[in-house]
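Problem statement: downstream parser choked on a complex file, so we are re-checking the raw output for the succinic acid run. The parser issue turned out to be on our end (a line-ending mismatch), but while we're here, posting the original submission so the record is complete.
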Amino acid sequence: MNAVTILRTAARAISDNFEVVRVEANLGAEIRGLDLTGAITPELADLIRSLLWEHQVLFFRDTGIDDSKQAEIGRIFGPPVADSILKRRGVKDEDIIPFNSGPYSNSYYGTPWHADATYLETPYQVSILRSVIAPELGGDTAFSSGISAYESLSQDIKDKIDGLSAIHRPTGKAYGMIEDKADLDDYLAEYSGVAHPVVITHPFNGKKILYVNEGFTKEIVGLPEPESKELLTFLTRQFYRPENIARFKWKPGSLAIWDNRSVQHYGVADYGKVPRQLVRIVAAGDRPSR
Ligand code: SIN
C-alpha cells in the first residue's frame, strides 16, 4: 500500500464523509467531513499531520471550534509559542489573544509576504488561524509555496543559492508595533539577526524549500550589498507568482493550518474599516536546516 492509500484508509476509518479537495496545482487543500469539535485522537492527529505535509496549507469551513480546541489542534504539531513582542508585554506561550486586524485596530492591516517569526533561531513549524469575524468582501489571506518556488528556479540559480545563508530580522514588524523608542531599541538589540540557509530541506517530506521572505530576510551572508539585494529581490519575487499562490476567503469558523516552513502568507488589506478578527495559534519548530 502506498502512502496515499494508507492515508485514505485511515481517513475513512475516522469519517465516512472525508474529502480532500485540492485548491491549486502547487499547494492547498480544503478538508471536508472531518469533525474537529470532538476528541483529537492519535489517528486524527496523524491524519492532519500527513495531510499538511502533503498539501502545505489546509483549509476547513464551519469548524464550530473554540479557542481551546484550536490550541489542542496546535499541540498536534508542538507546544504553543507567544509572539516575541507580546511576550515582552507579559503574554505567556499558552495565552490566546484574538487579534482585530484593520487600519484602526490593535493589529496588522495587511502584511508583506512572510513566514512567521523567521527571525527566531527556531521559527514556528506550523501556524493556525481561525476566523471569528470576517469581512463580507476582502481581507483574504494568500499563501505561497516555497517548494514550488524552489522547483521552478533554473538549475543555474539552484546551484548558486544552494549553499548560501541569509540573515532574518524583525525590523519592519518592530517599527510597526513598538511605539516606545527605548523598548524598540531594546527589542531590535535582542532580535538582531539570525542566519538560516536560503534553501532548506523539509524535516518530514524531504522536499527542498526556498526559505527567504520579503518581511524578514534582510541580506545574504558573504555577498556585497548590491548583489545581495538583487538576489533577494529576485528570490522573494518568486512568491508573488500566481503559480505558487492559493488565496483563502475567510468566513466565521473557517480555519487555515499552514506549514510555516514551506509556505509564506500575505494578509490582503482591501477591507477598509470593516471589522475582522482572527485567532492565531502557532506550534514551535526546530532550527531549519539544509
Ligand atoms: C499575518 O500576517 O500573520 C496575518 C495574516 C492576515 O491577517 O491575514
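For whoever reads this later: The chain is about 30% helix and 25% strand.
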